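Researcher: Let's try something more involved. This one mixes different molecule types, so please make sure each is placed in the same coordinate frame as the others.
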Amino acid sequence: MKLYEALAEEIAGMIAKNVLRPGERLPSVRQQQERRGVSPSTVFQAYYLLEARGAIESRPRSGYYVAQRQPLAPEPEASRPDGVSTVVDVSELVFSVLDAGRERSNVPFGSAFPSPLLFPLEKLGRAAAAALRRIDPWSTVADLPPGNAELRRQIALRYQLDGVQVAADEIVITNGALEALNLCLQAVAHPGDTVLVESPTFYAALQALERIGLKAVEVATHPREGMELGALAEALEQHKPQACWIMTSFQNPLGSLMPPEKKQALVELLARYDVPLIEDDVYGELYFGAQRPALAKRYDGKGLVMHCSSFSKCLAPGFRVGWAAPGRFARHVERLKLTTSLAAAMPSQLALAEYLGQGGYDRHLRQLRGALAGQQEKMMQAIARHFPPGTRFTQPQGGYFLWVALPEGVDALVLHRCALAHGISVAPGPIFSAKRAFRNCLRLNYGHHWDADHEAAIATLGQLARDQLQG
Amino acid sequence: MKLYEALAEEIAGMIAKNVLRPGERLPSVRQQQERRGVSPSTVFQAYYLLEARGAIESRPRSGYYVAQRQPLAPEPEASRPDGVSTVVDVSELVFSVLDAGRERSNVPFGSAFPSPLLFPLEKLGRAAAAALRRIDPWSTVADLPPGNAELRRQIALRYQLDGVQVAADEIVITNGALEALNLCLQAVAHPGDTVLVESPTFYAALQALERIGLKAVEVATHPREGMELGALAEALEQHKPQACWIMTSFQNPLGSLMPPEKKQALVELLARYDVPLIEDDVYGELYFGAQRPALAKRYDGKGLVMHCSSFSKCLAPGFRVGWAAPGRFARHVERLKLTTSLAAAMPSQLALAEYLGQGGYDRHLRQLRGALAGQQEKMMQAIARHFPPGTRFTQPQGGYFLWVALPEGVDALVLHRCALAHGISVAPGPIFSAKRAFRNCLRLNYGHHWDADHEAAIATLGQLARDQLQG
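Model: All components are placed in one shared frame. Result:
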């Protein structure tokens, strides 16, 4: 980490812990210089970085102040699903939305991916070339599940840095996190079984349940702190589920982040019922705060937490390398991988092992987080300016999605269709629910470079929503 | 194709069509030179190539003769399964055999893969590097199912050369053929349904059925000509299956090759019952004759044939790029791919598209076929020398597996364990049957460079079998 980045992280931590309060003046550049012995340019760079993230703001001829992060809008209310299990049948709706959203010329607010321009594709390409030059031909056979040994070692090292003990042996390399999640699900649930999910929940989770013939019970979820444990306890009693699938950090679509003590309580609650937790953690590295959020797996004493993640959202989209650390189910998942698709692609595995070994991953992640935080701030301000009164939205501490609840009376599916006619894609709320709830909600992606087109697109969406309310 | 290769292919074709008969003398080098206007070295190279393949043999001071391909042993009899459906539960046995066979120091007769040294890994590495240097970042998002457009175009071109009309649009790129087969199976069959398979059949087919909760009906299969259509017709009447999964060319484990007219009759028979054919064709390119065997898909008039293949056995093991051409089920398979593992790895797809575009694939295939044919001949001769009287084996026209039926009284599972103690892996017959039949059979892999250790290993296997018969 460079000096200015370290300084920025330190100040961000002080803001997060409320040591520095909203509106408070930051030490001047001269003060920092004298007290810390750093150069003025280091301080300026740190302040610019924090300003780009929206954490501090400059006032002309006065200096830098902690941003007034009064919420730009109230956050949406926690969901209150009816707690009845549902045979999942949402795929057709999801596909029609996804197909419409893949047109490159559209403003990509409905996309599931951040901009590919944010990733070090050139460096990854060079890493792949270097690794393939040195390839041991026999590795093409030996790198069957659980996967390339060096890559698994690198992943295990990162778990250790995050305070979680995961042996390299426990890690099964998969064809992206989606395959990891599917395999974990199949390892513990069978057709007709029930699985608890968040409300709203990621549509791919619903599609996976649908494909395997599982029933979904959506559990009340708070837009800032994730699944509500009281509602979870009731669902555990009532439905005797075989698994619980939760995105514990920066949930898709809400952006909710379960606090560490709540994660611990979650793991303990599920352990009392002996129910496995499938912890979908693909956004965990995209935090805007000072530290990576804790993993629920950290609190796992019984091997019941199946932690799944990938490099697709934070480093190498398209390389299709994910993994599962499935606790006591590791061998079962490994064998399912073998009978489902044999192994993950060797060139991708080797390229990532090489890249991680070179040591630039954390620097890339810091840049990526900074870019996403800045783009989030800009999208929030634009929504606050252009959307109709009564609009609520989340203010996630990481990831690249905002969850927007428009006033009752706005139909997101209609809005989705009208927006497409204006060259704007959005992800309408009903695709995030087996019951097609959240009819007035949108998930908006701020993972792309913010420009005047984006500002105009938000204005158009706001106008379309107003038109509906007046029509 | 080089001149000597073209000449060798031409002669091989004449042998295959019986224009040149076993034991017949080939034209002398001088004759070829005069009649064809080619150089002596071209003729010598062609003859050396054919000799390496076991197609011709030199007799000192006499010239070259078409090899006496009297069978070295009688072929095994066609299987006679009982036609009762079976809930599949074979995975544990398969895994214990596979785990034992992955030890690199063992003689790899039990391996499912040919030697990785037979593949142009360096050239593929350079192709990957070149493709990744030119990558369009947006392709990392756009290359979702059905996959990279250029790669699909290249595959469609090869279909056309084989006389089959497959649009690039029909092709879904998958994570190896195994995923393609799994997705095709899931597109047409649901838990509790029945699927017809060969007897013996590839264990991964049995594992796929087991994982999805399908019932297998094993249908009588001839060791040279594949599934028997009379038995198939009975099974169609009796079991009302949802699909039929057949390896039409160089079946694993038998090596059987269904003749073209039988493939046509197969497709017509299944069409009368409206039953989809999952055509597993991963070995089709590894033919020793003059021409690629016909695809059953060639005779498909109703879109019922789901053709699956990959580059894993003939070009790029470990790249995990396969595909399905699923006829009328194409969109369904594409969507299943999206919900199962999203997409195939982009670096592998780009590398293969680049390699295929460069045009060296057919030359590589010719070399590979020559090497496999030569190794097959050597293994057959060694078995004929060392195995006990009464041993039968197949003489496949392609692929890299021999199916050996030892005399009744030899237990292949015992032989497998004893062989491992001698550092030799074999694939015992019972892993190729949901009923654990074929107790006296072995599948032996000749896909590795033949040497004295291999000769000695065959002798050891022969001795172990004799010990069992005498014990």
